[in-house]
Amino acid sequence: MPVYTPPLRDMQFVMHEVFNVVDELKACPNHADIDADTINAVLEEGGKFAAEVTFPLNISGDEEGCVLDKSTHEVKAPKGFKEAYAQYVQGGWPALSCDPEFGGQGLPLIVNQCLYEMLNSANQAWTMYPGLSHGAYECLHAHGSPEQKKQYLPKLTSGEWTGTMCLTEPHCGTDLGLLRTKAEPQADGTYKLTGQKIFISAGEHDLAENILHLVLARLPDAPVGSKGISLFLVPKYQVKADGSIGERNAIHCGGLEHKMGIHGNATAQMVLDGAVGTLVGEPNKGLPAMFVMMNAARLGVGNQSLGLTEVAYQNALVYAKDRIQMRSLSGVKAKDKPADPIIVHPDVRKMLLTAKAYAEGGRALLMFCTLLLEKELHHPDEKVRKDCADLAALLTPIAKAFLTDNGFEATNHCMQVFGGHGYIKEWGMEQYVRDARINMIYEGTNTVQSLDLLGRKVLGNNGATLKKFGKLVAALVEEEGVNEKMAEFINPLGYLGEQMTKFTTEIGFKGLQNPDEVGAAAVPYLRVAGHLVFAYFFARMAQAAQRAIDAGSTDPFYTAKLQTARFYFAKLFPETATLMRLARSGSKVLMDTDAALA
After folding, report:
1. Which ranges of the chain have pLDDT less than 70?
2. Please, which residues bridge with residue 212 across strands?
3. Cα(113)–Cα(134) distance, rounded to whole angstroms?
4. What is the pLDDT of residue 341?
5. If residue 523 lies in a helix (H) or strand (E), which one and from where to where?
6. Count of CB atoms within 10 A of residue 288's CB?
7. Alpha-carbon distance 82 to 490, whole Å?
8. Number of H helices, E strands in the chain
C-alpha cells in the first residue's frame, strides 16, 4: 500500500525563508494581522485531513469508480467519498480563503494552495469535487450580480453546494466559438438553456445537496464566434427566494465517461433541456467572466500534477531504500545483505531526484503565483496590482503545461523505480501515472497553453511582460553574481536570461513572415520558459539554504536543498539547449509533409 507524508517542512521553507510571505501579505490591508504560526498550524491540520481521511480512499475509489442510475440520472461517488466530504465541510476547509462577507475565513490564497497540493497528493479524484467550487466561487465573486452573490456565494463558501464549469461540447473543445448551446430569454428575466456539454468534471454526484453549473451558451441574437458567448448560472435544483432548495432543474447527467484515470471523479455528459438559468455578467461577454474560473482551473491542474509528483516520489524513495538488487558498481554497500538497495545505482537516483526537483520547483512556482494573485486583488498600490496581474497571466500557462508535463515524466520515473511491481495495482504507482497523463490534456491541452504563452502572453505585447520577469532574474543575478558559493546556480540562470530575449525576438520575426513558425516553436518555447522560471526559483531556494548554512545551521534540510538544486542545474536545466534548437528548426519540416501524411 502507498504512503504519504505532507511536505510541511518544504512548504514552510518556501513560504517563510524564500518568499517571506508574512511580510509580503502584510502589505495587503486584508492580511495585516496574518502570522506564520497561524499559517503553519492550519496547514498541519490540513495535512492530517489529507493523509488520514482522503488518502485511504484513493485506491478503492479508483477501483470502484462512479455509478450512474440511468433512470434517475443520479450519480453515486465511490464508497467513503460522501462521508469524507461531510468531514471536509464540517471542518470549515471550503471557506479557508473565501471572503468573510460570505462566511469565509479570509486566509491568504497561499494557504489554500498548499492545502490543495496535499489533497491532490492524497486523492486527486476526490479533491476535484470541492476543487472546482473554488473557481465557481471566484467567477461569481468577480462577475455575479449582488443578488447572485447573496444567494449562492455563502453556500459555495460553506461547501454545502459545489460548482462546475460547463464549456466543452461534443463537436468543440478549446474552440469555444463553435459552441451551440442556446439560451432563450424569459419574461421573468431568467433564461432557458438547451444543449449538451461533455467532459464535465464533478458534473453530477451525491456529495452535496446542490450543484451550481456555470454554463456557456448563445443568446438568440448573439454574434458568431467567441464574441457571441454569454455565461449563465444553472443550478441542479432551483433555489427559492429564501435560499431553500426548490424544484429539480432540467439539467441532468446523460452519461459518464469511461476514462484512463481519476475514476473516482464523475466526468459527466450534461444535458440541458430547457434548464432555467440566470445571466452572469453582461450579454455576449461570457468568456472574460469564465476566464476567471478557467485560469483558476489551469493553476489547479498544475497543482494536481504537483501533488502526484510529490506522492509518487515519496513512495519510490521508500521502495528504493528497501528493495535490494545487484551490487553497487563502485563496490558493496550493504555488506550484511545478499545485494545492495537499488538506491545505490546512479540511474535510480536520477529518477528519484528528477521527481524531487520537479516537485520542489513546482511548489515554489505555484506559491509564487498565488502571492501574485493575492497582491493583484488586494495590494493598495495600483502599479503593483498591474505588475502582479501581468506576471500571473504570463506564468499561468507555464504552471499548467510545464508542471503537468513534468508530473507525467516524474510519475513514470517513480513507477520505473518499482520495476515489475510498478505496474501492479496494489502499489498505487500505475494509478499516479494514469491520473497524471490526463492532467496534460484537460483545461486546455499543453499545446494550447504553449500557443497562449508565446502568441498571446509574450509576442502579443512585444515581450513586455516577459521583460518584467526578466527584471526579477536580473536583480537576483546582480545580487549574487560575485558570490562564489552561488556561481553554479546563478551563472546558468543569468546566461539563459540573456539568451531568452534574443531567442524570443528571433521566433517573433519568423512568425511575422509565417504564423506557422509560432505554432512550430510554441511547445519547446514553453519548456524553455518553464526552465527559466524553475532556474530562478531554484537559485532563490539555494540562496536561502546557503544563507542558513553560513549562519551556522547544521540542519540537513539545507544541505539537501542545495544538492537538489545542484542536480536540477546539472541534469535537467541543460534540456534548454536542445529545446531552443528544436524551436529554431522551423515549420517547413512539419508543414511540407503532405506525402508523408497522405
Report:
1. none
2. 163, 235
3. 11
4. 98
5. helix 516-550
6. 13
7. 49
8. 18, 11
Q: Are 267 and 199 in contact (CB under 8 A)?
A: yes
- Choose among 44, 4, 116: nearest CA to 367: 116
User: Does the annotation count 360 as an active-site position?
Assistant: no
What secondary structure letter does DSSP report for 461? G
Neighbours of 365 (CB within 10 A): 23
pLDDT digits (tens, 9 = 90+) for 348-395: 999 999 999 999 999 999 999 999 999 999 999 999 999 999 999 999
The residue whose grid cell reads 430547457 is 274
Residue type for 243, please?
G
Pair 135, 163: CB distance under 8 Å: yes
Q: What is the DSSP letter of 174?
A: S
Which listed residue (117, 443, 480, 517) is catalytic?
443
Stated as kind and residue range, the H or E segment containing 393 is helix 382-417
For 458, phi then psi, to 5°, come to -105, -65
Q: What is the per-residue DSSP string for 433-451? A: HHHHHHHTTSSS-HHHHHH
Do 264 and 65 form a contact (C-beta atoms < 8 A)? yes
Please check whether residue 305 is in contact with residue 439, taking contact to mean a CB–CB distance below 8 angstroms: yes
The DSSP code for 161 is E
- Residue 165: the pLDDT is 93
* Cα–Cα dist 96/101, whole Å: 13
> Between the CA of residue 385 and those of 27, 373, 391, 415, 590, what are the distances in Å?
12, 9, 10, 42, 41
Distance CA 431, CA 62 (A): 8
165 torsion bin: left (phi>0), alpha (psi -120 to 50), beta (else): beta
pTM of the predicted protein model: 0.98
What sign results for the dihedral spanned by CA atoms 538, 543, 546, 548?
Answer: negative
- The C-alpha cell that represents 221 in the structure block: 441574437
Q: What is the DSSP letter of 100?
A: G
Pairing state of beta strands 210-217 and 161-166?
Answer: parallel
pLDDT of residue 293: 84
What pLDDT is stored for residue 435 in this prediction? 98
In the 3-class helix/strand/coil scheme, how is 554-591 assigned residue by residue? Answer: CCHHHHHHHHHHHHHHHHHCCHHHHHHHHHHCCCHHHH
What does the alpha-carbon distance between residue 363 and residue 438 come to, in Å, rounded to a whole number?
Answer: 20
Where b means 16+ CB within 10 Å and e means fewer, 235-260 reads bbbbbeeeeeeeeebbbbbbebeeee
pLDDT at 404: 98
C-alpha cell at 232: 449563465
Task: Evaluate whether 67 touches 258 at the Cβ level (below 8 Å).
Answer: no
Contact indicator for 68, 253 with CB cutoff of 8 Å: yes
User: CA torsion angle for 474, 479, 482, 486 (degrees, to 10)?
Assistant: -90
